[in-house]
Design a protein that fits this description.
With 130 residues, this protein is mainly α. Helix content is 68%, strand content 0%. The protein is built from eight helices and no strands. Helix 6 (78-85) crosses helix 7. The longest helix has 18 residues, at 13-30. The radius of gyration is 17 Å and the shape is elongated.
């Protein structure tokens, strides 16, 4: 991560993005949350595109985390995800918590972080269109 930060500071953004991307992936695999957060900030500072950030986000998730996150971003409840994946609800909770931590987003930002479209939700604002 430090190499990527140094490269960014001396005006070598392409090289910085590569080093920072690798650092973020390793930090996520190791569960180094503080380093992961710093890496995401550095990626943005180095000019990472939203596509690049989504690409990093999806690469740091394991297969089960990605699958659970995909279901959650479609609006499925924990119980529904557990039924789809044939695992317990507590396991789903752990998978989603890990996915949220790794991609740096909560439930409301998960779809965007993964590059998925959020589900269509009903308008509850109380206003009507005429």
């Amino acid at each position: 991560m430090d190499q990527g930060t140094a490269l960014r500071r001396v005006g070598r953004p392409r090289e910085a993005l590569e080093a920072l991307g690798q650092g973020v992936e390793i930090a996520a695999q190791c569960g180094a949350d503080g380093l992961l957060a710093r890496g995401r900030v550095e990626l943005v500072a180095a000019g990472a595109s939203p596509h690049r950030l989504r690409s990093v986000a999806t690469r740091v998730l394991n297969q089960q985390e990605h699958r659970a996150a995909g279901f959650a971003s479609q609006g499925l409840s924990t119980r529904e995800i557990a039924a789809e994946m044939k695992i317990g609800e507590s396991a789903v909770g752990k998978l989603l918590a890990s996915a949220y931590r790794k991609v740096g987003a909560g439930p409301e930002g998960l779809a965007a972080a993964l590059g998925l479209e959020p589900p269509d939700l009903p308008d509850v604002s109380g206003t009507t269109e005429e």
